[in-house]
From TrEMBL:
InterPro entries: FTHF_cligase-like_sf (IPR024185), LUD_dom (IPR003741), NagB/RpiA_transferase-like (IPR037171). Pfam families: LUD_dom. This is LUD domain-containing protein. It comes from the Bacteria. Signal peptide: none annotated. Residues 113-212 form the LUD domain.
Length: 213
């Protein structure tokens, strides 16, 4: 077996010995935006709405009230350990937040069954690309592990306005290369064999994006 493998590899090397070196990749695409800031924000909102997400504009003062409104009658919702608590509405007898540790290996981390029993999740975000209408989550303490943004049926995602860029190269430059990246462009959706849209199969059925500025 070893002799056969050696022979095969030797023949491959012999066949490729005069292969020219690959030409360097041409990177003529735009790597930095020249659009006005407000135009970039409008582009992101247009893309997200087109993907069936709901978009809201809030300030730090109005944010807790908006989140309370979006949660509605949700009895329990999960938040990552590092989320800014000033963003959250006051707890009442009808509603309370469940804090999930950022480390999925922690003994107290919520499992899939526990996450499936909560109504919603509130997270922050790393960066958003307006050109593609994509929000990047990278597992930071205010975003949490991937499971908490995929299992609950309703995701409320806070996007600081200063974290919005126009282009993918700009977005990737702000992402830690080794981070676990989850990209979101609207609620989870797919189509069946008859091209009927089905939502909530691979993630939240409902996505509310709050542009915070």
């Amino acid at each position: 077996m070893t002799d056969a493998k050696t022979e095969i590899l030797a023949r491959i090397r012999g066949a490729l010995h005069d292969t020219p070196a690959p030409a360097p990749a041409e990177r003529a695409y735009r790597r930095a935006s020249e659009r006005p800031r407000e135009e970039v924000l409008e582009m992101l909102e247009d893309r997200l709405v087109d993907y069936k997400a709901s978009v809201h504009h809030e300030t730090p003062e109005s944010l807790p009230g908006r989140i309370a409104e979006l949660l509605g009658s949700s009895a329990r919702y999960v938040v990552p350990e590092g989320l800014d608590r000033s963003w959250l509405p006051e707890e009442s007898g009808m509603r309370r937040a469940i804090v999930d540790p950022n480390d999925a290996r922690a003994a107290s981390a919520l499992g899939v069954r526990e996450l499936n029993a909560v109504d919603a999740v509130v997270t922050s975000s790393t960066v958003s690309c307006a050109e593609t209408g994509t929000i990047f989550l990278t597992g930071r303490p205010d975003e949490g592990r991937r499971a908490i943004s995929l299992v609950p049926d309703h995701h409320i995602c806070v996007v600081p306005r200063d974290s919005v860029v126009e282009l993918i190269p700009e977005a990737l430059a702000l992402v830690e290369p080794t981070a676990p990246v989850t990209m979101i462009s609207g609620p989870s959706a797919t189509s069946d064999i008859e091209l009927e849209r089905v939502e909530g199969v691979h993630g939240p059925r409902r996505l509310d994006v709050i542009l915070l500025g």
